[in-house]
Design goal:
51% of the residues lie in helices and 3% in strands. It is mainly alpha-helical. Keywords: Signal.
Length: 243
Amino acid sequence: MFFRSLIGAVLAGTAVSGFSVSNDPARKVTDRRSLFQDLAVLTTGGILSTVVEPAWASGGATAGKYTTIPIAKRRYYGRVQQAVHDFLLMGPDVVKGEPQAASIQFFFDPQGVVVVPAKKKDINGQCTKKDGDCRGKEIRDSRFNDMKASMYLLANAFRTDQQKPPDRLPTVKAAKAFFKEMNDMEKLVTKKGKVDSKQVAAVYVAALDILDQYLDLVELPPTDSGHYEQEFDTLVGESPRIT
C-alpha cells in the first residue's frame, strides 16, 4: 500500500509520510527515475542487470578530428532528443502498470509521427501530372523506429578511426543494447491478450539505464537532467549545439 501511495506522490509532486517529493521539475525527474529503479528491483526479485558495461565519452571522440561529428549532431540531435522526450513520457504509465496507455501506444504506433513531410511535386508552380494531383505524400513511422534510425546514425559518427567497423564503436554497442530492450518492450505492449505490466516495467528500466550510457557517449544530457521535459525540433538544425 505504501509503495502505491509513493508512486502516486512522485507522479503528482506531493508528499507521503516518511518520503519527501519536491515540486521542482528537475527534482521530480530525479525522483521519478529513482522510482523506476525501485520498481525494477521489486519486479525482478532484487536482481537488476544491464546489457552493457558503463562507458564514458573519450577525449578523442569529442575532439572534432572528423567533421562527421558536428554534421551528425546537426542532422540527428533533434530527432534523438525528441525521441528521448517521448520515451520518458511513457514512464508514469509504465509505473502505473498501464501498457495500453496512449503514451506507450503512440511510441510504437507505425503511423505515429511524420518522418518525411509531404512535398508538392509541381514544377515552378505548375502541376504536370495527368490526374492534376501534385500533392506530395508524407512518410509516417513510429517514434521508436525513427529513434532507432537516428540513434544509430548519430552513434556511427562518433569515431576516431574511419576504418573501424560500426559494431566495434562503444556508441553503436550502447545503441544496439538499447534497441534490444525496447524491441522486447514493443513485443510486450503490442501483443494481443493480457500484458505482464511488471515485465514491461523491468524492460523499460533496463532500457533507461542503457539510454543514459548512450547519451553520455554522444554528448547529450542524462535522462534525469530535466533537459528532455521540452519538445524538440526534429528537422536538420543549423548548428551542432544542444537545443
